[in-house]
Amino acid sequence: MKPKFRPGQVLVNVSVPLETAISGRATRTVGVWAGSAAELAASVVPNTVSVVTAFNNVSAELLKNPSKTVDCDVLVCSDDENAKKIVLDLVKGIAGAHGFDAGPLENSRTIEQITALLVSLNIRYKVKSAGLRITGISPVS
Question: The CATH number of 10-125 is which of 3.40.50.720, 2.40.50.90, 3.90.1150.10, 3.40.50.360?
């Protein structure tokens, strides 16, 4: 059964094409013909649905417990400025997290690659919560 989307809905893509999907390493990504998982998602949903990349570089361990402070930043990409604003507003509701407008959806390509690096850091340092902090610029307020 195909999912049904309504015009104006926002799809938040949190997926990352890690090699583990094909029995590979979690520290590597696989190439996606569309450029990124987010761009692939955008190519298969109706054009009335806005796709936003967000939370790809935030540990699921932190996000699954709403009482924990998420001590990292959230990079948000989309070709739809209104959809990006909606997701940036969601980020404000997460204690400790700061949202950054990371540009158009094509920047998802870089964001998804960063996830593989964070997985590698988690393994190396035996943690489950490595994340990013953006310095030198203010988060979206």
Answer: 3.40.50.720
- DSSP-derived secondary structure for 30-45: ---TTSSHHHHHHHHS
Phi, psi dihedral angles at 108 (to 5 degrees): -60, -30
What digits encode the pLDDT tens for the residues 41-58?
A: 999 999 999 999 999 999
Task: Return the minimum-mean-pLDDT range out of 12-16, 25-29, 123-127.
Answer: 25-29
Alpha-carbon gap, residue 120 to 52, rounded angstroms: 25
pTM: predicted TM-score of the whole model, two decimal places: 0.89
Written as six digits, the tokens of 69 are 């402070």
What do you get for the CA distance between the two ends of the chain, in Å? 40
Q: What are phi and psi of 51, to 5 degrees?
A: -105, 135
Q: What is the DSSP string of 69-111?
A: ---SEEEEEES-HHHHHHHHHHHHTSTT-EEEE--SGGGHHHH
